[in-house]
Amino acid sequence: MPDAATPVLFLHGLWLHATSWSPWMELFGEHGYDAMAPGWPGDPDTVEEARANPDAMANHGIEDVTEHYGKIIDGLDRPPLLIGHSFGGMIAQKLLGQGRGIGAVAIDAAQIKGDLPLPLSALHATLPVFRNPANKHRTVGLTADQFAYAFGNAIPREESDALFERWTMPSPGRPLFEAAAANFVLHSPAKVDTRNEQRGPLLLTMSGQDHTVPEAVTKATLKQYKHSTAVTDLVEFRDRGHSLTIDSGWREVADGTLSWLREHGL
Question: For 33-75, what is each residue's pLDDT tens digit?
Fold first, then answer.
């Protein structure tokens, strides 16, 4: 069992509220970790408040979010473990590369600068944002149908709709525009220091049915770490989609994460 003082910072991605990590936080607390899941800049405390006042979250980009979590880390007694999903997984990698965490788990993480594949399913999943260039400076929500395609395609529709009602909120479009343009921008905020050999261990996960972050994206990210001797592992959840952290199979992913952390003394 880890030191009871070991903090774990859970980072959510687009369209899910930070409270969607609640089951994970309870489980990690039972295993002796100090678990916390602060939201992105402007995120209110509840899903209902986020839906009622989406403008508070508008126009926050990747660097804003990274520095927001960086300031939270600076206030801790020791560097935390970082566990992120989707864009939260990208942010976790950025923070780990900056030496602001002792290890990280990036669950179906959004593409970073240097990833070349852009599968059609990912384009379709993010179309609600990209269909209007003005969405870069706005928040955008998903419909239940859009959520079912982007997150819930590997689970029954009834479960997808229940997750949509419980956890979803509008999110800023800016991170998606920044990630899409990353390979054309010299100092893109989607850049991750993949060559850092002093960083802690990193686990990347990919899901065989994920429409939003298909396996090709995660494999491209893994390839970028080949120049570092630091630990970089990959695990596949073959039959899972992008909802893997919140759907009825979340415990499989969480237990796998805990096993990997124990394996690396984290």
Answer: 999 999 999 999 999 999 999 999 999 999 999 999 999 999 9
> What are 245's two structure tokens?
């952290």
Chain segment 134-147, per-residue pLDDT in tens:
999 999 999 999 99
3-state secondary structure of 16: strand
CA atoms lying within 13 Å on the CB side of residue 112 = 25
Q: Which CATH number fits domain 7-263: 2.60.370.10, 3.30.230.10, 3.40.50.1820, 2.120.10.30?
A: 3.40.50.1820
Residue 171 and residue 62: Cα distance in Å, rounded?
Answer: 12
CA atoms within a 13 Å half-sphere pointing along the CA-CB vector of 109? 32
Measured in whole angstroms, the distance separating CA 60 from the mean position of its chain's CA atoms is 15
pTM of the model as a whole: 0.96
